[in-house]
Design brief:
Length: 103
């Protein structure tokens, strides 16, 4: 499991970019105390989603304003058409963990 950060590192309504060793960059989201993790790179324009804006349960890409559903990674607003990877989150003693992608 990858230990990404502490829950207190991500304020409510915010996103934190994490660069785990030997893994793609990840975005950690705090939606009203519920944490989600996706790949940080947009599948449309190679933008960092952690630099985007949270709109309800969606993340808006900072390049072309396309959106993804944070919980599932599914594209919701064009030009985004390819999902981003989302990861099941485990929280242990205030730390946020995910299983590394097994391509």
């Amino acid at each position: 499991m990858l230990n990404l950060c502490r829950t207190e590192d991500v304020a409510a309504g915010e996103i934190l970019r994490v660069d785990p060793p030997n893994h793609v960059p990840l975005a950690v989201y705090n939606l009203d105390g519920k944490f989600f993790v996706t790949d940080d790179t947009c599948t449309h324009g190679e933008a960092s989603l952690s630099e985007g804006e949270i709109d309800g349960e969606w993340i808006e890409c900072p390049f072309h304003a396309g959106c993804f559903e944070i919980a599932t990674g599914l594209p919701t607003v064009p030009p985004c058409a390819i999902p981003i990877r989302s990861y099941p989150v485990t929280i242990k003693i205030g730390a946020i963990f995910v299983e590394p992608a097994g391509d």
